[in-house]
Structures
1.
Amino acid sequence: MLDQPWFFLDVLSGVIAVSTGVLAWRHRGETTAATALAVTMFSLAWWASAESVCRTGAPFPAQWVAQSLLFAGVGGVVVGFFCLSRAVAHPGWRPSRRLLVLLCLEPLLTVAAALTNPLHDWFYEAAYLSGLPPTLHRQFGVLYALHASYSYLLLLGSLTVLARALPKAHPAFRRQLASLLVAALVPALGNVPTVLFETQVDHTTLLFAVTGLVSANAVLRQGLLSLVPIARDLMVETMDDAILVVDRAGRVVDINQAGLRLLRRLRPQAPEQVVGGCVDVLIGPGFMRTVQDGPRAQLVEARPGLFIEHRTVTLHDRRDEVLGYLIVSRDVSENQRQRAALEQANQRLTEQLAVIEQLRDQLAEDASRDALTGLHNRRHLMSALDAALAEGHGAGRPVAVVLLDVDHFKRVNDTYGHAAGDLALQTLSEALRRETRAGDTVARLGGEEFVLVLPDVGVEQALQRAESLRSACARARVDVEGARLALTVSAGVAVSPDHASGATRLLAAADRGLYEAKRDGRNRVVVASCMAARS
């Protein structure tokens, strides 16, 4: 025969406890609180199962064993809720191995005392079956009183922890903490008549089942423990970086002091209550979309001169589902100002280096120029001639040299002065420069002598070019002291490899041609004699 009402209530309590325990166990990897809740509910299922045996009218030995083993479930409920309260109040808390051993010691001793009661009668002073169906009745002894006192002290400690954490919690979480606190009070107070008045009708398991449902709702569904402990382990209130935790819906779950200070700078008009608010309203439209879809690290100019660097970490549960986002923000305005200043300094340095390079090139160019005429000097001439000969020899192409000398230049200096002579040299230099082509080199060899290096020019073409140069100089006029002077030049031509192969010998060959031009009457061009050049 069953004690039907209470039997079915015990079964209902067990079903609720098992279901809640399984749900919490699935989240055990996310937080210690979920594990503690699962242990509490599985212990409650054990307790309810043992109670239901006593509702069946079973023989005295069966009810005695069930009633004794029941205290393992009672102890597990008390220990589980003790750990649950600390995990809720202090996210990230985990019991040490030593603490777990000490907490499990009392339930084991209680079960042993109950099973061995016929040997000492210290746990129950009397136990017997009575009523229909026959149900085990007990008269509690001193060891039971110690067990009850210990259990209530542990529950009282758990309630104290929750109560002390309540005013310090963020407003968004106070409702969850309050619901856990009230839910824990119900079975604690409901069990008082059973303990004080030794009533035989015990409905504590049903009350704890209700507590389990409320706890599961606060712990799992409302995200109190599934999100905050994961983020809170990374959050330190004294950090200089601003840390913000938002859930998938864009609600602010947590924020540290640095985050509040930065938010006030960004949005002075933001509401006083930040936690629980919409992040897009607090920070700006589209911020949540940037967090979800944007790069994990990004630099934003929040307002002119205020640069904020955001780094986002996505928080997942053990099934790899997104729980929310952890955003670490830092004011990098000073770094940006320093970087801009450094870039400006680098730009100025680059510009200065370019100027220096130009000056260096200019100095090198000036060093290769004749100061009076602006033509290349002897030093540059020899370098250019060597390069042209080397290239021409490698490619099998000729290189021509034209050596020019101003006719009767001494008369100009003696008659009109050296200033007039300098002007005459400048005028002839300009005439020569106009006759040169790309790739040619025209230089003042010294005094009134000029040299042109003509790459890839044979004897006939070199003679034509030299005649053009002579004619251009003959057409030039120099205005001095009211008179217009007409000057002429004599030229000698030599071509490599016909007349010589080296720079010095090639110039010597052109000089012999020039000598012949001077000897034959000046104002003419003479190609060097091949035989004479090779001798």
Note: Residues 333-367 form the longest helix (35 residues).
2.
Amino acid sequence: MERAADPSRPTSAGTGDVQLTGVTALAASGGTVLRTRQVGADVVELTARAADDRPGLRVEVDLGAAVGYWHPGADSAQLLQPDWAGSSATGLVSSAPVGALYDASGSVLLAWAASEAVAELCVTTGVSEERKTFVVDVRTVRPSSAPLQVVLDTSGGPLAATLSRLATWVSDRLPGSPLPVPPVAEQPVYSTWYTFTQDVDAELVTGEARLAAELGCGSVFVDDGWQRLAHGRGYQGCGDWVPDPAKFPDLAATVRDLRATGLGVALWVAPLLLGEESDAFATMAPFAPHREDRLSCHVLDPRRPETRAFVVDTCLRLVTEHGADLLKIDFLEQAMAYRDAPPAGDVAYVGEAMARLLGELREGLTRAGRPGVAFEFRQPYVSPAIARYGEILRAHDCPADSVTNRAASVNARLLAVGQVIHADPMMWGPAGGAAAVAQQLYAGWFAVPQISMRLATLDQEQRTALRGLLRLWREHSEVTLHGELQVLGPERGYDVVTATRADLDRSVTVRSAPVVVDLDTQPVTGVSVVNATPEPVLLARTSRQVLGGVVRSSSGAETGGLSPTGPGLLELAVPAWGSVTLRLGQPA
């Protein structure tokens, strides 16, 4: 688990009025005036104003024994980028202005967050070769009379707790509140995407949905492929957003059939993508000057009122005409193509335009009598500000990559304020047995699992494993989805993750590497540990008596019990990809 800060770290060094451990330099960009407020030991809030209304600042901290830098878009295998590697943009649909430099114990050396989570910021971070420091440089892109607020934290706290605190700090400075999460968003999902890609139709979906409901899913996500001109894995046909008559001759009837199985229904839509094969292209092309060759389509500019009206109308039709309960709104990050474009429309900047678009969509749903329709968004639009518009945040695409799915899901959890996190849809090899199912399910254990396999053709072993593991996930979900997180080994994709609900006297740990699990990190007596490794033994340490326990196989079935033992270093016979639930004595 995360450790306390190393007492051997550098002592506090003053930079003007700022007292922050390890900070070697703090400077305002030209014309910026900083006002500082010490809000805690090694925690400072800065307010930056500039004569040109474009404030910015730069902070450097001693590298110490840093091993990685956490940020919302952390996809690179290089954990510490150099400061010359380039800048990134944050905004409502691109990452978030939050980051943390940490050491091998999981202690934070420098964490920061900025108050501007909607408008674009230019952020440069990385290692200074010359000064042996880590640099964070934050600058506003658009002129604004509002000051830029930045919080700096070098208190050495654990990564998960520090990021949670900073995410709340950002959220508290935004208007409004996160949307409430509907119960259907916290139930396992059946997704059509990896199962069928665009080769989907009403008969396939309804047949799979019945099986998904029997296995314990609560919704079905009808992904890309339901719409006319969906072919070739490209987006050259996007724009009309009407059902393909050959695949879904009566989409509203299909939605009703799916809901009759007890499942909520989500429809996929990428409303900013405009393909040249669509009928809409003739009228909407003037509002989509940017062509994204990788996607084989154009991108509508949200700064134009015509775009916003088109997107709102599109999404409202999917809800009112076809009866969708949820919308999977994809590819919103493509709006950032207009970040540096010349002014157009009635809104100057992308973040503000997207906030207006999503706000107008929410208002439209309320007027239509469907305010409870939930939205699923996806990394990289992960800002706490996006929780004002969508209830679900999903890990980015990583088919069959359980390590990436685990890291992406946990990363999203660490930054979420009010949203429920969904894992990327899970797929596996049919020859992998129960272990393959468990490996994928455990990767998203602290998120809502999405399943994307052809259920009708699963063999009995994998069907049994999927049923049993979904049942076990539901037993754990009150803790895994809502518990306080602790993490170990973020630089390795999170070796150990624990969620704790003190009010329920329970914790759940997933151990994804052959390391010793510390059972004493939380004062609870009900402890579940998932052995997400191929090793048939689990090492744990506790200072308390183990009063007993239940061992489960890789399919979630009980295989036996544990006799009282401990305290000390325990070697527990837990099957590979299995789990154990322990009853511990009260902490001293």
Note: The longest helix spans residues 460-480.
